Amino acid sequence: MSAVVAGASAPVTGATRRPRGGLFRAILRNRKAVVGAALLLLFILLAAFPGLFVPGAHHDPQAIGDLPLQHPSGSHWLGTTGLGQDVYAQLIYSTRESLVIAVVAGLGATVLSVVIGVSAAYLGGFADDGLSMLTDIFLVLPTFPLIIVLATYAGKGNLTVIIIVLILTGWSYGARQMRAQAMSLRNRDFLESARVRGERRSYIIVVEVLPTMISLIVANFLGAALYSVLTAAGLQFLGLGDPNSLSWGTMLYWAQNQGALVNGLPAWALSPGLAVALLGVSFALLNYAFDEISNPALRPVRRRRARTAS
What we know:
CATH superfamily: MetI-like
CATH architecture: Orthogonal Bundle
Largest sheet: none
Low-confidence stretches: 1-20, 303-310
Membrane topology: Multi-pass membrane protein
Number of helices: 14
Mean pLDDT: 84
Number of strands: 0
CATH class: Mainly Alpha
Strand content: under 5%
Helix content: 55-70%
Pfam families: BPD_transp_1
Protein name: ABC transmembrane type-1 domain-containing protein
Main location: membrane
InterPro entries: BP-dependent_transpt_permease, MetI-like, MetI-like_sf
Radius of gyration: 25 Å
Shape: elongated
């Protein structure tokens, strides 16, 4: 009889063990996550060490040269601007500002979404009504015209102002998702236990609620970063950024003003646009991958290979 009990208890013990590195393995098994992470890592390296990817003769991307509007060649891989500046060097050095905008604005919008959305769901009552009304107002506002107005009158060309504007206009959708998720958790047993123990509201929100929403918070950050990259590039392309700064949107602005396509220099106009698109693709792929990892219902069904009879 004791042998039967021992044998029955063995599978239970093994089943309760959690494999280490489960999230890391899930990311490696997801093709979207691998491709998105590889692209993002490449941009991080370009932003952190731009000098390693630029020939020594072009380490100053703002240096005015003697050969304006040159076609791509061995000395200028993507040609030169109207002032003789190397386009490839500007493309590499512009990665830093574009990535900073994406990360800082995305992080700020995510923090604001979490604070407003989770607080509204957990507090309830008048606080929920007021915060939900504020979220609905920002959701129905025409975002891009509002961004143009704020960026123009609050401080044209100021990078800090652009980031603040992106945060203020990019938090509402995430806050609605956070509120819906927190509402589904508000009456769970572990939260009721925390209330019975007499824990403070701030402790319950930070320690009990937020850890269960990590996947949604990460997905919200990636979506906000994608929004920030595309919107900031659009603002700078319209001339609402600092024309003397190094960013992909500013490169597009000068390529249009100096007639890159008219002068037969498509690489000058297309390369920053392609960089913006690839950075956006990296955030989008990581977003889709985290959705699939956190929600098994969204994972693609893989056909099993039929085993051939021996």
